[in-house]
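Same chain as my last thread, 292 residues:
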Amino acid sequence: MYELIRAAGNSYYIQSPAKIGLVVTGDGEVCLIDSGSDKDAGRRVRRILDENGWRLGAIYNTHSHADHIGGNRYLQGQTNCKIYACGIERAFARHTVLEPSLLYGGYPCRELRHKFLLAQESDVECLTADVLPDGFEMIDLPGHFFDMKGFRTPDDVVYLADCLSSRETLDKYKIGFIYDVAAYLDTLEKVKSMTAAFFVPSHAEAAEDVSDLAQYNIDKVDETAEKITELCKEPLCFEAILQRLFADYELKMNFEQYALVGCAVRSYLAWLKDTGRLNAEFDNNMFLWERA
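reply #2:
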């Protein structure tokens, strides 16, 4: 873990729970794509920089989930590097209580205020094309979260952030985190048709071709949507839908899974309603979902 692996040319990644991109930009300076989950990840990254005699110039955050921005504050404090994120992601990285608040739907209880959902805040500037290193391309990858971005380097290496989950992860946890299902499916279709010298997804194996994995992720979204629609053959409230999903998929409920899977299921329900597959109504002050 935390092994530095060359993808191609000056483009590397650090093998970690959420892969960290590292690109040598010239004159001994590098940039990072994301920073890992916490201060300890930041320390491990700093050790790699020191061992190679590299200076950290900038961190480009793909999105603001805690496992991607958790090393920001430590590395910025150690190196005085710039940190950039796009749109709403910048606000979330600057005010990190927003992530667990969104997941929970209100002020998060203590069990949700931990480093896996609540990173330390950092001084993040606005990510625009003009602050990228020469030859970098920014790629829109919305759906998993608000304004998620990927990056293509001059070596034709594409860092895909969280738009793909591994087959093993999807088979084990069944329901991946998605904020906007329609946007996510569009992103997956785009990624499925992409070509590059090498792809580096944050939570799947790096590879020369990710088209089959993209289709597998699409299939899992369709499977979850069908499952939810079938459950709603009778009117059900959100809590009942979530309980039956956990039971049918043999998942274990805890605070973190309630927040993460619950938020994703709410996104599915909204998408299924907007596409005419579910109806929603209020009955005796209960919010109920039913197959259309």
